[in-house]
Specification:
Elements: H1 3-10, H2 16-31, E1 40-49, E2 52-62, E3 67-76, E4 79-89, E5 100-110, H3 118-138, H4 146-165
Antiparallel strand pairs: 1-2, 2-3, 3-4, 4-5
Helix pairs in contact: 3-4
């Protein structure tokens, strides 16, 4: 499905209930992609801002109890953006943390005339997740070169995907 199909559907929302239904549909579309297998979805919020809906949710993946990767699709003012962030959990409580610091972040903006699909958008977001995870491995003090860190990250994510697909 094209990402902007959700923006077009958002333009038809008239009530908070319409916005909530669209948020659930967008969330399902992202979580159905192989790229976000194993992520949890949290903090969904949807409501009307005047004539247009504002909706967003977070997909989080705990690298450890100290680092979380967060992806936040947002539709607001008839535009879809995807925020990607590497979060440092100050209290070491992982997904249950109440105190964190953003270590790295990027935003993907989907242009109004873009034909990008949700699947391709998920792949783009995952490449940024890989970049953040690779940088974290490089800066770990363990002596990883960029290429070695990237290979380790990709191998870890490939194993994660295999285990998730096979319910292990």
């Amino acid at each position: 499905m094209r990402a902007n199909d959700f923006v077009k559907q958002a333009e038809k929302c008239r009530t908070d209930k319409d916005a909530e239904a669209l948020c659930e549909k967008l969330q399902s579309a992202f979580l159905a992609t192989p790229e976000f297998c194993g992520f949890s979805a949290d903090n969904a919020e949807s409501y009307m801002e005047g004539e247009t809906p504002h909706l967003h949710f977070e997909m989080n993946y705990a690298i450890s109890n100290v680092y979380i990767l967060a992806i936040e699709p947002i539709i607001r003012e008839s535009q879809l953006t995807i925020g990607i962030a590497l979060q440092f959990m100050n209290d070491g409580l992982g997904l249950h943390s109440r105190s964190w610091t953003t270590k790295d972040e990027e935003v993907i903006e989907v242009g109004k005339d873009s034909d990008i699909t949700i699947e391709a958008l998920a792949q783009d977001a995952l490449q940024l997740v890989f970049d953040f995870h690779t940088k974290l491995a490089e800066e770990s003090g363990l002596g990883f070169t960029h290429d070695a860190a990237r290979a380790a990250v990709e191998a870890a994510w490939a194993k994660k995907s295999y285990l998730q697909k096979n319910n292990r």
